[in-house]
Structure formats: structure tokens, C-alpha cells
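Obj.: predict assembly geometry.
Materials: sequence records (below).
Method: joint structure prediction, all chains together.
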Amino acid sequence: MSELTKLTIAEARGKLRKREITATELTEAYLAAIETANASLNAYVAVTEEKARAMAKASDERLAKGEAGVLEGIPLGIKDLFATEDIHTQACSHILDGFRPRYESTVTANLWADGAVMLGKLNMDEFAMGSSNETSFYGPVINPWRAKGSNKDLVPGGSSGGSATAVASWLCAGATATDTGGSIRQPAAFTGTVGIKPTYGRCSRWGIVAFASSLDQAGPITRDVRDAAIMLKSMASVDAKDTTSVDRPVPDYEAAIGQSIKGMKIGIPKEYRVEGMPEEIEKLWQQGITWMRDAGAEIVDISLPHTKYALPAYYIVAPAEASSNLARYDGVRYGLRVPGRDITDMYEKTRAAGFGREVKRRVMIGTYVLSAGYYDAYYLRAQKVRTLIKKDFEDVFDAGIDTILTPATPSAAFGIADQDMAADPVKMYLNDVFTVTVNMAGLPGIAVPAGLDGKGLPLGLQLIGRPFDEETLFRTAYVIEQAAGRFEPEKWW
Amino acid sequence: MSVDIDTVKRVARLARIAIDDEDAGRMMGELNAILGFVEQLNEVNIDGVEPMTSVTPMVMKKRADEVTDGNKAADIVANAPASEENFFLVPKVVE
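Observations (raw C-alpha cells):
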């Protein structure tokens, strides 16, 4: 691994502008790192060397002419959920075999317009359904972190596991990711990286393979808070092609970094102290509270009474939307087709062969809760509970709370093929217990590394903000980062 | 509420996913575990609560009713498993 791949986006940006390094050198360094590491880590499902080299060359030309964009020459990895024109886009599902879209997602188009370089497509849980990156058709992603003195492979979290691993192991300068129930923040916490899910409506969903449309949001995973601010500024936009894209200008998030949090009111929700939570998580949370207080913020105990109902409500709403969104995979328009004796048989065989177990499970749950006679008992009730979850947050923000501090996950990264989780889907779902509330309420949330557990594995804290107040999250997360320092895995791959 | 094996098969049919008896048995267990987990929503008092329809309070954006895109038949069928002269090919539907 060369030192070039260790640069943050902000550092690389400075060196590129000063012509100390070229975009081509930086891109070649990453391509070489991917070549060496990908067999061990399985972060990339497609590497786009030629395109990367061509984009880097064009960046160097623009840099020479003084026409550099804000991400000029920065090599990025793209989650396989984003449509990239004429390039592998399969949501890591067998059913999208061979799919190469004829269009580009708005988020990636924004990044390329700002001069970023695409290294390739990143592994993920199939259709973003999973919390360990083990449901991918392309096999699990391996976390670059290992427990002290152990060589056991750990999961990077999911569904943006490839994004998190690639950023943590220096296989890209930053990565796009998406978050429906915690898929940016949980893998960020498991890999010692920073991940932000912005407010629903901040990033366009156009050209992102849909999972649960009322919950899905794109955001970056990066090595530090400043990089997350730089990337989000570029990813976010107002887009006429997405009717849920919000008509508000995108602020300069980087400007919020370094601002004081003195006098800010930080809420500590008692409902996030869940049963069976490891002592170390509680300790980390207390440490975070101390850092906030030391920085001059006021700590306020708050209550979000419907917290425990967010996860069960999510497991009705998200599968219901998924069952509808995934109806389009029918063996007719794209991807896999398995022949049958008639059209229905063809549909059924194609979907049986093309979807993995977790996806089938969720499509089945969604179909059931939307079916005649059950709609009111399940779906309508869950949508009413969702209103109550959102109101909990509105009440505390109305009472003057600026941001809410919680743990990001209930544990550190766990082993590949964990027996308990394989036996009980609900155990796996509990990974998202602290993150899912944020999606249900459409709020922004950031996960920032805050320490290591006794085994030497990274743990993260989460900050939750008011709608469209990502700036407060960056400002506060930076205070945590300054206090906690940054965490890097020991290279074994 | 819990599902029996016939319900699992009926739902699989609605979802257009072929399953055999072994799959159905396994899925019944998994679906019942999830349905058991979501059961706790019945504890919540939802009297007079409006169901959420939009997480951000906003009026649906509208645009002028005019043609903005088109003439892309070749692009549209480009990824089809089977196509002919810009038509999708499917097994015979009408006897």
C-alpha cells in the first residue's frame, strides 16, 4: 500500500491543487491496492480500471487548466445499488445478472460533474437487505478489522459493507452508500469509518435501485468527518427527476466543521439503554457525553417513548415497500430469466432462482402484510406507529434539543456466519435497533468512530439531527472525532 | 397471528416465487418468528393517530404535462433476456 492511498479526500484535494501529485498517480495507487487486497476482502464486485484511468487523465487536464471541480481527481468506490451507465449495476443480486443501465444515477452524475474518478462497484447485501453483507450473491465482504490476537474473519456490517471495508482498508478515498434502516451507519461503526445518512429528500433517489422508497437515502462513507461533509455536499442536490427530492439549496457542510458546540443542547434518550447492551457500549456513550460537556454543550436527559416499536414497525413498512418495488424483476425486462411452461411459471421460477433467502423472506412478509384482510392489522398500524415515532423526535426538538447522542450499534463487529444470527432472522435485525428510528422519522444521522472495545474493535457513536440540519451533525461529530482520534486497522491482507 | 403452511404457499403464489414443500416448511418458521416479533405493535395505543404518508411535510411536486423524454426503444429493450424488433419476448400468454 502506498502512502497516497492513506490521504484523506481533503488532503488529496490539497496536494492535487498544488500539483504535488497527479490524479493519475493517485488512481494508479488505488488500482494497485485493489489488485492486491480484493481477493482477501471482497469489497469490489467490479473494478473499472479503464474508466478510472480515463477519468483521472481528464482530471489532470482540468487541474492543469485551473478548472478543477470540488472533487477533482478523487478516486471513489460506488455501491452496486447506484445505476452507472454501461457498468455493472446488479444490487449484488443474481436476478440482475448482466444488467448494464443506459443511464446514470443523479448522485453519481453529481460526483462525476465535480471531477471525481470511479474505481468500481462495491459489494453489498442483496438489494441492501442485510446487516452483515452476507446476503450478497457475490459472497461476504471481510472487515479489515480483527480482534486482537485473532485471525477470525469478521463482518463489516451491512448493507453497505463493501463501501465500509473499501474506505477502512484504503481501497478508495471515499464511497457512496445507502441507508434504509442503518445500512450506512452500522457498517461505518463496525469499520471505524464515518457514515452519514442525510435527511430524507436531501439526495436524489433517481437511479438508485429501490428497496423501501419511503426510507431509502444515499450518503457517503469516509475516513473522517470533513471528508463526509465534502462528499455529501457533492452528492446532495435538488432533482426534478425525484418527486421526493426537497427543494432547498445544499449548504456548504465543510464550513460547519470546527465551529464551537458551546451552549448546544444535546439530548440523551433513556430508551436507548437497551437490555443486554454490553458494558463497553454504555461506557463509550458516557465518554461521548463527557466530551460534549467538556466542549461546552449542555446535556439534557430526554425520552423518546416509542423507540422500541421502531424496529417492529420497520419490519412491516420496509418489506411491504420492497415487495412492491421488487415486483419489477419478472424475467422480462432485464436480468435473469428461467424458462417455464407458461408465463406465470416463468415468473415464479425466475424469482425463485434469482432472489436469495433474505430477499425472498422480505418479499413474502411484505406480500403477506399487504394482502387482503391483513392490511389494517399490520401495514396501517405500522404507519400509525411511525407517526408516533416521528412525533417523539418533534417533541424533543421543539423543546430546544439541537442534537441527540446515542450509541451507533448494540455491539462491535461479529464473526462471519454467526450461528445465532443465522438461526434467527430477528437477531440479525436487532443490529439496527439504534439506527432504524432515524429512517422511520426521515431525520439525518451520522455515525462517528469513538473508541475501541476490549478486543480492539471499533465502536461508534451516533448523532441524530433536526430535518435538514446536517450542519449541526458535522459540527458535533467533528468534536467527537477531535476528542477520540481516528482509528485504523492493522494491515493483514 | 401466525401463518400455516397453506398460507405460506398462497403468499408465495401471490409473490410469484416458486417454493417446494421443504422451502415452505422452513419459511413458515422464519415468517412466524418475524410476525411474532412485530406482534408487540399491538401494545401501542393508536387511537386517533393518522398513518404516515410522507415523512417530510411537502406538497407533491408537479411538472408540466409535456413530453420530456422518449425515442429510446433500443435502450429500453437493451437489457431484456429476449427481444425482437424492440419488443420484449415472453412465453405465449393467450391460448
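Conclusions so far: The longest strand of chain B covers residues 83-84.
To do: check interface contacts against the pulldown list.
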